[in-house]
Design brief:
mainly alpha; 14 helices
Length: about 350
């Protein structure tokens, strides 16, 4: 399949078909994930961070790896960091959908805080790679294996935190624990839930992959730089599953699942660069990126820090029911994308 040869109406039709498919199967996957979270005892955030986050990130990782394999290092890295920024900004949209209170207040949990801190650690490792772009071993930057080990260690810490939390958030009338509003679907066996989740994840991932193939020729025709295209067009297109699933989870009342899908997916997305470094054949991928990709990295760190402060401060009502941190996330992302348009 070579989407670059498709006509504009065909590209538009494929994009719309993918969006509808993701919407339909994303709802099914979200419901199955919520039920599995309670049946297995893993919790909504852990399931969202690991299972849902990884499943919805398959499209993005395909885009980055393909770009790196074909020598487009800037596109590969900007797609990763731009996707993290876009998905973090999606929390502002989810906050708008949740009308009762500020989403960061209602979805209070120690796991959310741990995942945010975990994500900042992973992004900090990338800063180390960007600061030492020429260092390599067998053509791979040393931070690549460090990043992979750090990711799995972070998952271990997250599981331990869920099972034996040492901090408990203060409960308010607007706080929505996982157990509230949940009705266990006793009519569905665990095997059937896993089947629904897996088949839906395949449909979402496949549609997301097709979105990535469509988004590149759709956007490249504009003549914009790889850094801007990767950080905006392809990043948003491949992050569409996260947005739909986050909104679906919020509307179902599974707030921790929504937050876990976004933040946990962001943590998984940091591995895009690590895997891209492994397949990039011209040396360490950090040596081939520009200041534009470093700027995307700085934007993701700033947005994650703002989100972490919002989760800690837990403003109940900001502008209406939307927290100030959600407004800041949207402003930072739009400002960063605008700066990228003029600078890249």
């Amino acid at each position: 399949m070579n989407a670059a040869t498709w006509s504009l109406p065909l590209l538009s039709g494929a994009f719309l078909l993918c969006a509808v498919t993701i919407a339909v199967f994303g709802v099914r996957m979200t419901r199955a994930a919520r039920d599995l979270a309670h049946r297995t005892g893993l919790g909504e955030l852990l399931v969202g961070a690991v299972l849902v986050g990884a499943a919805t990130s398959l499209a993005g990782i395909t885009t980055s790896v393909t770009a790196a394999w074909t020598g487009h290092a800037g596109l590969a890295v900007s797609n990763a960091f731009g996707g993290i920024a876009a998905q973090t900004a999606f929390l502002a949209i989810a906050d708008i959908v949740y009308r009762r209170a500020n989403l960061e207040h209602a979805a209070a949990s120690v796991e959310n805080l741990v995942v945010c801190a975990f994500l900042l650690c992973l992004l900090g490792i990338h800063v180390g790679g960007a600061a030492t772009p020429s260092v390599s071993f067998l053509g791979i930057h040393p931070v690549t294996p460090i990043l992979v080990v750090a990711y799995f260690f972070g998952l271990y810490v997250l599981v331990k935190t869920h099972r034996s939390p040492m901090w408990i958030p203060r409960r308010t009338d607007d706080t929505r624990p996982e157990s509230i509003g949940y009705r266990s679907g006793l009519q569905s066996s665990a095997a059937r839930l896993w089947l629904i989740f897996t088949t839906s994840a395949v449909a979402v991932a496949g549609s997301g992959w097709l979105l990535a193939q469509v988004a590149v020729p759709f956007s490249v025709q504009t003549g914009l730089s790889e850094s801007f295209v990767g950080g905006t067009f392809t990043a948003i297109a491949t992050s569409l599953p996260e947005l739909i699933i986050a909104i679906t989870a919020v509307r179902m009342g599974a707030l921790n699942l929504a937050v876990g899908d976004i933040i946990g997916g962001n943590a998984f997305d940091t591995l895009f660069v690590a895997i891209s470094d492994m397949v990039y054949r011209a040396g360490p991928i950090y040596g081939a990126i520009s200041n534009a990709e470093v700027l995307w990295l700085a934007i993701t760190i700033l947005m994650t820090a703002v989100l972490l402060m919002g989760l800690l401060y837990r403003q109940r009502h900001g502008i209406g029911n939307i927290g100030v941190e959600s407004v800041l996330l949207a402003v930072i992302y739009l400002g960063g994308a605008g700066a990228m348009f003029f600078l890249a």
